[in-house]
Amino acid sequence: MRALQGLRGPRAPALPLFLLCFLAAVRRSLEDGLSTAAPFTSLPVQEEITTKYSNLSSESHNISVTAAPYTSLPVQEEMMTKYSNLSLESHNISMTAMPMKENNKGNQICVDRGIMLQRNVTLVEQSNMPVEKNITLERPSNVELTCQFTTSGDLNSVNVTWKKGDKLLEDNYLVNATGSILYTQYRVAVIGSKQMGSYSCFFGEKKQHRGTFNLKVPEINGKNKPLITYVGDSVVLMCKCQDCLPLNWTWYGVNGSVQVPIGVPVNDKYVISGKHANETRLKITQLSEDDQGTYWCHAIFELGESEGHVELVVLSYLVPLKAFCAIVAEVVLLVTAILLFEMYTQKKKKPSGDGKEFEQGEQMKLDDSNGIENSGPRHRKNESVGQ
Amino acid sequence: MPPPGGTPPLHPPPDGGWGWVVVGAAFISIGFSYAFPKAVTVFFKEIQLIFNTTYSEIAWISSTMLAVMYAGGPISSVLVNKYGSRPVVMVGGLLCCLGMVSASYSTNVVELYLTMGFICGIGLAFNLQPALTIVGKYFYKKRPVANGLAMAGSPVFLSTLAPFNQFLFNTYGWKGSFMILGGLLLNCCVAGSLMRPVEPKASTESKNKVGVRETDSSMKKRQKQLSVWEKINKYLDFSLFKHRGFLIYLSGNVIMFLGFFAPVIFLAPYAKDKGIDEYSAAFLLSVMAFVDMFARPSVGLIANSKLIRPRIQYFFSFAVMFTGVCHLLCPLAEDYTSLVVYAVFFGLGFGSVSSVLFETLMDLVGAQRFSSAVGLVTVVECCPVLLGPPLAGKLVDETGQYKYMYLACGAIVVIASVWLLIGNAINYRLLAREKKKNIHTKESQETEPLKTSQSPNVNIKSGETETWKGAEVNPSERETNI
Question: Record's family (chain B) (predicted)?
């Protein structure tokens, strides 16, 4: 959320003319939850669909919120009813076009405030940074991808295309224009790994403005830091995924550069278990230095596979032992040095030892500033004298 | 100078010279004792996974270590009274090493409790008490400074050990780390070897003199009467429980420790609860430790000044009150900056209290009885120190807010400070009155040899009486000669 807020900052002054690069890519889409945006309410069809699937998981990821009228194609509706048991997800990307230096041709530029803006424009370098959004999907669902394009130029002349990866998409998308905002929406029913990937909307002839939706399966967390173990130990490797429930987990070890499945011939050395569905544990016993390396855990979803990795380091027990022995040696050295030094200084003192005691007693008598206790020694002295 | 409520030091404390080396050694011992139980918590998250237990079961290791360290106080005191600081610290270092090395071979949590918790705890107890005792033996005039410097070991070691433990874990895993930490704890033996005893070993002469004295029949009878109680007191001075100052100190501290440590433990969760991220929350603790590090010696210096030293008990009460008020004002902190300010002030309060914590005890009971006193104090303080944080945690769970916990802790600490203030005010008055009385009686008694009334006093004083008396024989002879 902070990233978003930070990005909202530069929006404030004279923004309509600046191309914004929203990089909301890092945030996992699942965490956004339901947005505060109002769903598209203007069309009765639209309302029908959203209320129909209101009990299913509905994801809307809106950066900017505006309602817009829609003209729905019959094809769209057919597809939606076909997969009506799937959840509906909506994702939006919003872009604002800015008049650019090189486009002084005039058809895409709207210079609103005259020369002042032109000056601003010339000062700023343009970079067509693509706007990207990562969407995490676990189960098959209907996905709605919406791109909004704001420009102060002529909307009708703007060419809108959708692409999946490099393949141009011909149908299943709508285009609509309201005021100075151009909407385009693409709907797809994601039921398998084939429908996953990168979907991009393009505005403009030269494909200058582009928004990308990356449909991915949930990420798996292994461990970033290597696990350090010793020969003969047993270790538990764990892979976890935040809010997802994979269908199945598999583990692979790496031999050279090839991933070799683990636990396939079930033996005592490898035990795969998991307390909850969203995690898996691989217990390896009787470790040896051969077991060192990276282990991959694969989570299998309906929509594809995701993997995480854990690195295992197996050390010999001699490694810390050396450090331990070094420290013990240092301690023994210091202790003997200190005690020898002390004996040496004591020997130096000894010839004048008796005299020293004498002096100490005298000093004690003089030094005693303890108020009441002054009476004590005096009494004792009297006593010993009395004996 | 206020009269210390106990016997005068045997030999004049050097107040310098080798004393500063001893302060350095005490710095190491105290540093390990206080910082080690907290620093090992770095390993707990990983160990929890490996041993397949809950976090609270693992956290008990730290509590056990702390509990045993405090409860082992009397044992430590007895040994220090008998053998002196040096051998006890060295044995402590060996025990700690043994504990940690055997912990690296443990296979379940119970074994960790026994090795890390129990054995290491005893070893740390054998480090803490003697270190405090020997500082008292080496210093008198500059004792507050020495105490402040020695106590500064705790925050310094904590801020060094915590990241070091993380590094060890990343390089060697938990087993190797425990082994290496065991080796590191052996450095307590180095610290112990530096703790040269103050009095020279001239006890053979004095023992003979005492033998001569003991053959006197009238003395013998009186000795037999007190021998059982006296014997126990020789090892651990239980007569301290009749000591007014000691009782005030003990009761005040028990109340204080109930609400003292909980705010430290809950500072990071409180910050996270306010919406601050993990690293900034951890940074608050670092700020606190940093301020603490510098507060302890500085406050020791302040406590040593002519103005404060006679009234050091009041100073202690004010330091405790300052900390209590800090906690009471904590709920007012809403954003990160104000929490940092709170951490700074808390560090100051925590440091000043810790710095004079044992200095005030020394001031009350004197250096001779200090080792017994500190043993008794730690074993009694064991309860509030261990009960405080879980109770505070329960309060947080019940009310759902950290605010009430801070208010409760602040109130408890302020009550403790008020109790200490009033108690010590009364104590000072009574001591001044006794002093006047003693001066009058001393003047009247100087003419009579008081054999009979004096001997019980001599007997009751701890086992060091023998050497003490021996030291006195020479000057007395000299005086009569003159």
Answer: Belongs to the major facilitator superfamily. Monocarboxylate porter (TC 2.A.1.13) family.
Tell me the three state secondary structure of residue A30: helix
Say which of A371, A373, A386 has its CB closest to residue B449: A386
Kindly identify which residue of chain B lies nearest to residue A349, measuring between CA atoms. B200
Q: How does strand A87-96 pair with strand A141-150?
A: parallel
What residue segments make up the domains of chain A, in order of their start? 116-216, 220-316
Torsion of CA B98, B99, B101, B107, to 10 degrees: 140
Return the structure tokens found at B336: 């990160």
Tokens 């050390």 belong to residue: A315
Does A116-216 match A220-316 in CATH topology? Answer: yes
Task: Compute the radius of gyration of chain B from its Cα atoms.
Answer: 24
**Intra-chain end-to-end CA distance of chain A, in Å:** 90
Distance from C-alpha of B413 to C-alpha of B420, rounded to nearest angstrom: 10
State yes or no: pLDDT of A106 exceeds 70: no
Residue A353: in which H helix or E strand, if any? helix A353-367
First-to-last alpha carbon distance for chain B, in angstroms, is: 31
B 194-253 residues inside an 8 A Cβ radius of A: 194, 196, 200, 202, 213
The class of domain A116-216 in CATH terms is mainly beta
Phi then psi for residue A210, to 5 deg, are -145, 135
Residue in A with minimal Cα distance to B437:
A372
Smallest Cβ distance to B180: which of A324, A367, A372?
Answer: A324
DSSP A317: T
Contact B173 A227 (CB under 8 A): yes
Q: Is the separation of the CB atoms in A243 and A251 below 8 Å? A: no
Closest chain B C-alpha to A239 CA, distance in angstroms: 13
In this structure, chain A runs to a length of 387
Could you read off the pLDDT of A143-188 as tens digits, one per residue?
A: 888 888 777 777 777 788 888 888 888 877 888 888 778 888 888 8
Geometric angle at alpha carbon A348, from A347 and A351, rounded to 5°: 85
Q: What residues contact residue B160 under an 8 Å CB cut-off, 6+ apart?
A: none
Sequence-ordered alpha helix ranges (H) in B18-152: 18-39, 41-51, 55-71, 73-83, 85-103, 109-112, 120-138, 143-151
Residues constituting chain B: 482
Cα separation, B461 vs B444, whole angstroms: 24
Residue A119 burial (10 A CB sphere; 0-12, 13-18, 19+): exposed
User: DSSP per residue over A239-284, as a string?
Assistant: EE-SS---SEEEEEEEETTEEEESSSS--SSEEEE-SSTTEEEEEE
CA-based nearest residue in chain A for residue B456: A380
Using the beta-carbon criterion (under 8 Å), do A230 and B175 form an inter-chain contact?
yes
Chain A contact for B473, CB < 8 A? yes
As its CATH architecture, domain A220-316 has: Sandwich (2.60)
CB < 8 Å from A in window 415-454 of B: 434-435, 438-439, 441-442, 445-446, 449-451, 454
Q: Which chain A residues touch B177 with a CB distance below 8 Å? A: 320
Within 8 A of B435 by CB-CB distance, chain A residues are 371-372
What is the C-alpha separation between B167 and B158, in angstroms, rounded?
14
| Residue B396 vs residues A297, B387, B401: alpha-carbon distances, Å | 39, 14, 6
Cα distance from A27 to chain B (closest Cα, Å)? 17
| Chain B: residue whose CA lies nearest to A327 | B183
- Collapse the DSSP code of B17 into the 3-class scheme (helix H, G, I; strand E, B; otherwise coil) and give the result: coil
Please give the ipTM for the structure prediction: 0.78
